[in-house]
Write a structure and sequence with these properties.
Layout lengths: L23 H14 L14 H37 L5
Helix pairs in contact: 1-2
Length: 93
């Protein structure tokens, strides 16, 4: 077989569109829902590593995760509240 000529190539259609990432709002709501389902009385447990620096970093990581979950839960509940207020408002004609 010889090299393909330019004419033998299939015509290209529309350029392929890359998929966009999920909107941040949907991800936040997903996180908030999972935060609602988790136990809010979680305790931060330090890892068993002997290095105090890494223990501190791991502890701060866990605290950050817990705070993010709590914030996501609060935002989700606040959005539900705002949606209910918006839907309950009187309709102007």
């Amino acid at each position: 077989m010889g090299p393909k000529s330019e004419k033998s190539k299939k015509p290209q259609g529309k350029p392929r569109i890359e998929r966009r990432e999920r909107p941040k709002r949907a991800r936040t709501q997903l996180l908030a829902r999972s935060a609602v389902a988790t136990n809010s009385a979680e305790t931060v447990q330090p890892p068993s590593s002997g290095d105090p620096f890494f223990n501190e970093v791991a502890t701060l990581d866990e605290e950050t995760k817990q705070l993010r979950r709590r914030l996501a839960q609060k935002l989700y509940l606040q959005n539900v509240q705002l949606k209910n207020v918006w839907l309950a408002r009187p309709q102007a004609v």
